[in-house]
Amino acid sequence: MSAYVSRINQVDASQLDNEIYNILRQQGMEISKLCAPGVIGKWQPEIDALIKIAIWNYSLKAGNSSFGQQLLNLHYDRYNEKKAIFYLILSVVPKYLQQRIIDSWLISNSGDYHRVKRFIDWVTTTTQLLAFTNILLFLNQGNQPNLIERILGIYNQPTKSHRPRDIGYSYMTRELLWHSFIELFTIGLPMLNIHFIKQKIKRMWIRRRMAKGFIAPQMKIDTRCPECDQSPNLPRHAGCEHIFCYYCMKARFTIDNIFECPACGVELHSVRMRTV
C-alpha cells in the first residue's frame, strides 16, 4: 500500500513550480527592457520554452521530483527517463505550438481563420474539461493533481515517511486580531461622546467658573469661535464673553444641555443660548 500524501502538499508543489517559472519569466522580461522594443518580444515563445526546459533539466531530468516537490519533500513514483522526456513534451510543446506555429499559420492563412479557430477552441475546451475531471478524481483519490501526471501514470510520494506538515497560524492570528480591532473601532468609537470626554479632562486643569451676569458680548472683526477657531457663522452666545457658531454651539447642546466654554471654562446652559 502506498504511503499517504497530503493533498495540500501536492497542490502547493504544483503552485510553487508555477511561481518559479513566473519568477524566471519576469526576470527575463526585466532584462529585455534594456533592448530595443520588439527585439526580444518576437522571440517570447522560444524564451518561455527554454525556461521550462531549463527548469526540467535541473529538476525532473536530474532526479524524480520538481523544485516544488523538493521544497515539500515529495517525489514521483513509477518515474523513469522515458516518462521524463514525455513530461517535457507535454508541458512545453502544446503551448509553444499555440503561441508560435498555430498563430503564425492563422496570420498567413486568414481565409481559413474561422475553421482553424473553431478547432483550436474545441481542443482548448476539451483540455480544460479533462483537467476539471482530473481535479475531481484527485479530490476523490488523493493523488495526481495534474493531468500530465495521470496521463503518464506517475504518483506523488513522500520523500520521508511520517513527516507531518508544519502549518503556521501566525499570519491568520494577526489578521483575526486586526479585523477584530477594526470592528471594535468602527462600532465602538461612534458611540463615544468625545466632547464629553474632552470636557471631563479639561475640568482637571481649568477651574470651572459660573457666569456672573448675562451680558451679550460684542461681535468684532477678529472674533473667533472657540470651538472651530473660525469667524462665527450665525453667531450665538450662552452667557460668557465668547461667541460661537450656531452649528458648533447647537452640536454641543445636542449632546448635553450643559457644557463648559473651551476658552474660559464658564458653564454654559442651553436655555441661555442667544443670538448676538
Which short descriptors sum up this protein?
Herpes Virus-1; mainly alpha; 276 residues; two-stranded antiparallel sheet; two-stranded antiparallel ribbon
Describe the protein.
Helix content is 54%, strand content 7%. It is mainly alpha-helical. It has 2 domains: 7-164, no CATH class; 191-275, Herpes Virus-1, CATH 3.30.40. α2 runs antiparallel to α4. The longest helix has 29 residues, at 113-141. The protein is elongated and about 105 Å long.
Strand-helix topology:
Elements: H1 7-32, H2 44-58, H3 67-71, E1 74-77, H4 81-108, H5 113-141, H6 147-152, E2 155-158, H7 170-188, H8 194-203, E3 236-237, H9 246-255, E4 258-260, E5 267-269, E6 274-275
Write a compact overview of the structure shown.
The protein has helices spanning 7-32, 44-58, 67-71, 81-108, 113-141, 147-152, 170-188, 194-203, 246-255; strands at 74-77, 155-158, 236-237, 258-260, 267-269, 274-275.
Number of strands: 6
Order of helices and strands: HHHEHHHEHHEHEEE
* Largest β sheet strand count, sense and barrel closure: 2 strands, antiparallel
Strand content: 5-15%
Please mark out the parts with pLDDT under 50 across 5 or more consecutive residues, or reply none. Answer: none
